[in-house]
Amino acid sequence: MSAYPYHNPYEGLSGTIDIKAVREAGFQERRFDTGTVRLNYVAGPDNGPPLVLLAAQMGTWESYRRVLVPLSRRLRVYAIDVRGHGKSSWTPGEYSWNHLGADMTAFLSEVVRAPAVVAGNSSGGLLALWCAANLPGRVAAAILEDAPVFSAEMPRFRDRDRFVYEGLEHLAETLGDPHDRDLADYFRGLTLPVSETREKRVPDWFVSFLSRRVRAFRTRRPGLPVDIPYLPLKLRLLLKCLSMYDADFARAFVDGRFYEGLDHADALARVSCPLLVLHGDWRRVPGRGLIGAMDDEDAARIGRLVPHSRYMKIKANHVIHMSRPRRYVEAVNTFLTEDVKGEFATPAGRA
Fold first, then answer.
1. Residue 296 lies in a domain
2. Which residues have a Cβ under 8 Å from the Cβ of 263 and sit 6 or more positions away?
3. What is the 3-state secondary structure (H, E, C) of 177-234?
4. Is residue 257 domain-resident?
5. Do 314 and 282 form a contact (C-beta atoms < 8 A)?
6. How many helices (H) and strands (E) does the chain have?
7. How many CA atoms lie within 13 A of 100 on its CB side?
8. Which residues does the UniProt record annotate as the domain AB hydrolase-1 (predicted)?
């Protein structure tokens, strides 16, 4: 266990959905106790077979806000806050693929209770891969949305493609103490390479601005996740998610605890269900490595290990379902109709 045990201060908050379109479409926020952790999730109306969505690290179910309603027209959609995120339990010292896999085993068995399509973005995609490899009776198909397959394995993650590793290291250092952290500190010193010789850096004045806004919010609304509605949506969601995020989740990637239970090549070789690989933009910068989740060789290697998989390249940033929601929904529907078929195929007259 961690030397700094702590609990999610937002775990017991009301499950009222404040996104009007999602609420009106029939989604409800619920909690599920696995016996080890409590998982927060939203569930849509029973309009078809189940689709389970897993957000990227630092993300919550709200990252799917632009696609929940259109997906729910033909599916029973679930979106989960994995442990360490959102209103789900924080478990410092207990983050690994095996821990998250146990949570998913319980959720699919006791909540979904039918073979489901499991779709995940980034680390959520790796968790979807874990499910496809280890729970064949519970997973009808899997969708890896710009998942860091191969690139998030040691030693490559730390030694070759360091950009994401360094970002997680920075996060763990700046937000690692949940009792004394300024969310704006995460942005202090952050850089994004824009070419081989030039980087963009978050300006100090902007960090100071965010720090003041966060303090003002917490003074006015103590005990609530930080949610500043006048900020751009992506920044607003990032701040809210960071306020509900256990930085030990990131620290587990940095110190090596997380990797227990998932060998990427071995898992892919055991995938027998239909598999969709969505691949966003990427590039490589000297000294920083891969800017993105995987390169073209990684994608080709997945294809060799899972010959029956479908690959789609989408010009989009890492969170495809947020930056290109319509394209994401189209890709999912095409996959379900043409590759999964059966009860997941589009019924006549329904989009």
1. yes
2. 153
3. CCCCCCHHHHHCCCEEECCCCCEEECCHHHHHHHHHHHHHHHHHCCCCCCCCCCCCHH
4. no
5. no
6. 13, 12
7. 31
8. 60-331
Residue 166: helix, strand or coil by DSSP? Answer: helix
Residue with tokens 């306020």: 243
351, part of any domain: no
* DSSP E strands, 212-296: 275-279, 283-285, 289-291
> What are 197-224's pLDDT values in tens digits?
788 899 999 999 999 999 999 999 998 9
Question: 3-class SS at 33?
Answer: strand
CA 317 – CA 282 distance, rounded (Å): 8
218 and 306: one domain? no
Q: Which phi and psi angles does 40 have, rounded to 5°?
A: -90, 140
pTM of the model: 0.94
The number of residues making up the chain comes to 351
Alpha carbon distances (Å) from 170 to 163, 165, 205, 340: 11, 9, 19, 40
Banded model confidence at residue 262, pLDDT cuts 50, 70, 90: very high
| R_g over Cα of the chain | 19
- Close Cβ partners of 1 (under 8 Å, ≥ 6 residues apart): 92, 93, 94
Same domain, 191 and 57: no
DSSP at 89:
P
